[in-house]
Design goal:
Order of helices and strands: HHHHHHHHHHHHHHHHHHHHHHHHH
Number of strands: 0
Radius of gyration: 24 Å
Number of domains: 1
Largest sheet: none
Strand content: under 5%
Number of helices: 25
Structural class: mainly alpha
Shape: globular
Helix content: 55-70%
Distance between the termini: 49 Å
Length: about 500
Amino acid sequence: MKLDVRSAKGIGLTLLILVALGAALRISYNNVTRYGNGDEYHYRTQLQEIAAQGWRHYPTLVRAHLDQNPDFPAPYRWGYLAVGRLACLVRGACDERSLAWVATLSGIAVVALVAMLGIRLFQKRTAVVATALMITSPLHLNLGRRAYADELHTACLLLALWAMASLTLEPNFGHKRHSRWFLTGLSILALTMAWSIKESVFCFLPALFAWLFCLRHPPTLRPRDFLLLLLPPVLFVGGFLAFNHGFEPARVLLNATRHSFLHSYSRMYQYGPPHRPLVELFTLAPWIFGLLPIVPVAAWGMTGARVDALMSLERDEQALSRQRARALVVVFGLILAAFLFLPKNLRFYAVLDPLARLLVAWVLCEALPIGSTLTLSWWAALLLCHAGFELALFHRAFVVSAVTDPTASAIFRALQIIPKEGHEKPWHPPIIVLGCGLLSTALAWVSVVRCKVNRSSVAAAVITTTFALGLPQLFRPFRSIISAIQVPGLVRETSENSPPFSED
C-alpha cells in the first residue's frame, strides 16, 4: 500500500494521530527542574510582579527596568506577560513551570499548524510527512520545555502564515464574506500577538509581504495586504500605551533594545560569519537542512519526463504546488537574510525549522520520483529512522548536556563539534539509530529501483548507507587531533554545559 491517503476522514485521522504523538512527546519532556538565570529568570520576576499587583503596576515595572541595566527582555512584551499571567491563574502558581507549560502547549500548536499549512499549500501526503518530520525537531522539543517566549512566538507566526494563505488562496475560504472577515481578524490578531511577544517580528515584515505577493497568480499586492501587516504594530503600540498610561519610556526602551545587540553576551556567544544561522540550523537538523538546497532547484527547475506524463489536471495541481513552494522558499530566504548579520541565536529564527520541514516534505513527496514510489512501509521506516536520529541529537544536546540557551558554542560543545575536555570520549550515536538507518536505506533503495531483492541492490544499499552513516564523523572532527596532541590552555566553559545567562 502506497502512502496515498485520499479521503478527508483518513487524512484528518492520520494528522490527528501525528499531532497526538507530538503532544505526548512534548508533555513527557516538560520536566525541567532547573531554569536559567537569564531570560527565564527575568520573565518570571516580571510576571510575578504583574500577577501580584495587577496591570496597574506595569508603568512601575517599565521604570524599574530602565533604572537598572536594561539588557534583559524589555517589559513592553505585554502579550507574553498577559499569556503568562493567564497560565499562573490556571496553575495557581507563578513560576517558570507555568511559562514552560505555555511553551509546551505552543509546541503542540506548532505541530498542528505545520499540518494545517501542509494541507493548505500542498498535497495530503506532503502534509503527513511534514507533520511527522516536525514531531521530533530537536530545537522545538527544547523550546517547548523552557520558560522562553520563542515557541509561542513561532506558533503566532505560523498561524499568521496559515491565515494569510487561506485568505489569499481561493476558493476554500475566500468565497464567503464571513470567512474572509474571520481570517482577516485571525491574521491581525496572530501578528499583533507576535509583536507583543517578541519585537524581532520587525525583521519578518519583508518575508510577510513577499508571502502575500508570491502566493497570488499573477503576483501582486492589494491594499488589504498593507492593512494585514501594518495594523498589528499599531495595535502593539496601542496596547503598550494603554498598559503604561503614556508613550514616554518607549523611545528609551527601543534604544536599550538596540544596544542589546552590542552586549557582552551577544559578542561572546552569538556573533559569527553571515552563514552562522545555517550552520546552527544544520547542526540540530542535518538531514533536513542537508536536503534543503534541493528545494530551490525543484521549485524553479523542471521535473522532466514526469511532468510530461501527467494528465492536464495533475499538471495544473503540480504547477500550483510549485508556485506555493516558491513562495515558501522566498519567505525562508528573506527571514534568513534578516538574521545573517544580527548577533542572535536559534531562538530568534526558530520559525525557519518548521518551514524547512514543509519544504523538504514537498520535495520528497511531490518533486522527486521517490514520492510516488515508496510505499507506506518504506515511508514509515525512513521517518522512524529520522525520528530516532533527531531524538538522539535532542537527548544529547538538551537532556544529557542540559543546554539552556541554544547558542552555537553551547550546542557545538554538547555534540562535541569542538572539544570540552581533551580526554573526553567521542560521542557515538546509539546503535539502534545506525541499525534503523541501514534497514530503511536498504528498503528505500529496493523500492525506488523497483527491482527484486538481489545481490546488486543489497550491495548498493550497503554502500549508500555506509556513506550516509559517515556523516556523524562530522560531529567529531577533533578526535584524531586531540588523541595525538595535548592542547595547552584549552578554553573551558564557566558553567557545565552552556553560557550562564541569555540575552534577548
